[in-house]
Amino acid sequence: MQLDSWQAKIKWIVISLLLGFIVLNYWSYNPETTNHFPSCPFKLITGYKCAGCGSQRAIHHLLHLNIGRSFKSNPLLIISLPYILMGIYLDLKKNPSPKILQFRKSLYGTTAIFLILTIIIGFWIIRNICDL
């Protein structure tokens, strides 16, 4: 039993260090002016923006508390952050009550997945028509 606890601690330390490195990297370097960030393969091949295009710039601007530029870079990412953070919170919650489990199922169940997919595809199409 001790080994499992130790392995879990190591896992969280590694995840924390990796996340810290990623945050520091996006805070320190602007993806608009630095070449070490990956480019979007969809945009390189087609010339059109995918639903995720601008996310790296949005994260950089968000870390610098520039919400307006962050939103302009990728509005879908900024709008979806509370939803993503809620999902992380609900996944990490130990011994959730039946009410919380039901709430989680309604927000992250099969119907929600299809709704989110529809939103992403709709945003993908609209951003290329309206040049968002």
Mean pLDDT, all residues = 91
Weakly predicted, low-confidence segments: none
What is the overall shape? globular
The tally of beta strands, per DSSP, is: 0
- Alpha-carbon distance between the termini? 52 Å
What integer value in Å does the Rg equal? 18 Å
Secondary-structure element order, as H and E?
HHHHHHH
- What proportion of the residues is helical, as a percent range? over 70%
Brief account:
It contains seven helices and no strands. With 132 residues, it is mainly α.
Give a written overview of the molecule.
This protein is mostly helical. Helix content is 74%, strand content 0%. It has one domain (31-129). The chain contains 7 helices and no strands. Helix 3 (55-63) packs antiparallel against helix 4. It is globular. The mean pLDDT is 91.
